Amino acid sequence: MNYAILRTAKLKTMGNIGGSLAHNYRTIDTPNADPNRTSKNVHTVATAEAVKQAIQDLLPEKRRSDAVLCVEYLITASPEWDGWGTNKENDFFERAGQWLYDKHGKENIAGMSLHVDETTPHLVAYVVPIDQRGKLNCKEFLGGRAKLNKMQTDFAKEVKDLGLERGREGSKAKHTSIKQYYDAINKAQEVEIEPKIPETTMLESKKAYAGRVADAYKPKIATANSILSDYKYTKHDKEVLLSVQAHTEQRAKPYFNAIKGLDKDEITRVNEAMQLESRKIAVEKNERKKAMEVSKEAQTELKTEYRDKWTSFYRALPKSKRAKVAGLLTEVRNKKSPEAVRAFKNKLIKEPEVIDRLPNPKTKDRDISM
After folding, report:
1. Domain of 79, in residue numbers
2. Per residue in 253-268, pLDDT tens?
């Protein structure tokens, strides 16, 4: 049985939104994404910062301090669906986008992304929940189980003819746990902490020691098992998540060793410090990327300026001189480096009288070094 899958997450702070966008635009390490396919992802808005700015522009000045600023939608279908890789796939995501437009108004959708670098293609949308009165009102769309059930049913009807059915009604699964799970791991790995493996004690059995080691990983294992139970109707996702579980347990070791023995307030401070460090790393990475782009643009401008300068100089030469210069340039390119070609051209531009002293290209045993 193939399902139409629709999930939502309520984002109440700009920090929540920034973290989600960092995952969405792959500006942080994303263990469940294939980096070889990330370039094939499609975004309606070019950058995460642009989406964040669009959200800020849509938000009303007056709003409750605990208001939901943005709703993150995730729309996909069962991995076993026969529509993947066919025209049905394009039709499915087009209908999903139109369904969001009809529900929220195109003007209230800050950005949408189509991910194809994970196990199953899926659409992610960032929607500012503005009601018909122009107020920020998430409850109007997601308030209560009845509205959520109706939303799931309405969307399923839109794609039923593509061979997809509504997901299980009454499910208590917390779908946002997947995003929170990966987000926690991505933040944890940014902080370098030397792991401390528990030491064995005198007369301690191997079984008891193994139990103490396992205690450090129980929270992560419990989270992974929760995810697996949420996806038990798809064997494919089970296998993927089992693999991710083993991978993330290893990467999370430093984090769980670091917070071992700390009280709730101390753990909160550690997490806040990690989040701050993660944001700094993301900002530095973005600044380096921008600097590289600026450098590339500057180099391109210089190359264009130089090319135009040489073209103007060359075209202004008499035909006989152009023939001589062209012949010698060919030989310089064949025998010397690009830097030598540039030096040759610069010499002619600065001292055009040198052309008269240059040998004819047909003359043998000549020196063209200048």
Report:
1. 1-171
2. 776 777 777 787 777 7
